[in-house]
Amino acid sequence: MIRVENLHKKFGGFSAVDGASLEIRTGSITGLIGPNGAGKSTLFNVIAGVYAPTSGRVIMDGEDISGLAPHELFHKGLLRTFQLAHEFSSMTVRENLMMVPADQSGERIINTWFGRGKIREQEEQLRAKADEVLDFLTISHVADEKAGNLSGGQKKLLELGRTMMVDAKVVFLDEVGAGVNRTLLGTIADAIIRLNKERGYTFCVIEHDMDFIGKLCDPVIVMAEGKVLAEGNADSIMQNEAVIEAYLGR
Ligand code: ADP
Ligand code: MG
Questions:
Q1: ipTM field
Q2: If you compute the radius of gyration of the chain from its CA atoms, what whole number of angstroms results?
């Protein structure tokens, strides 16, 4: 689904991504691991249109998508999750979900040229969709809670839920399990697996927790110093000499 070809991203003279090439197969849950500073988040940000690449290409389903803006990628079904913006913390969980389609599409709020009846109809559809998403994620009980009051793990589920408000094809998750307790980590893992199996989402997941990666991801791609160091299933990766050395070398 996604092919990254010899990608470079420089900040000043420093190459955060230094000639990375990799593929994310359609239907996979691909893991991306590596020591801190390896360039994982920068790679995500280039793929997701947050940064333009210094050189190299990103191909999605055969089409060159390098340097497209996040809202253009959003229309193609390529999403990355973001931490909930501070200004939405006083809105309820359901409201946070309901605003995703208008918010992310680069359009401004469903505008005045719709009559009032039309707006109400749209709002009802959005509300029904949001409730379906909350049900899927097993957090219906916090629908009317202010988003700012959620636990860390519930916030992560809500971030994942935001991708379900639209027709996502490929979703990039950057440390979705960071600081999350075991129980909710399991809930997040289950949601990812179900989205993959039942809705056909392709995932690329950055995560440090190797249990999580091992349970979820095949293949696992290892980055170090801006490059791809190794690729394989979780077991083979953990026995790979170069991978062990990259982690110990820091
Ligand atoms: P990872 O996610 O693998 O920990 P990052 O992609 O966040 O790594 O960072 C890779 C390297 O690029 C690090 O050395 C980091 O300090 C540097 N870096 C990341 N973003 C920027 C930026 N916006 N400006 C300058 N340097 C950056
Ligand atoms: Mg990172």
A1: 0.98
A2: 19
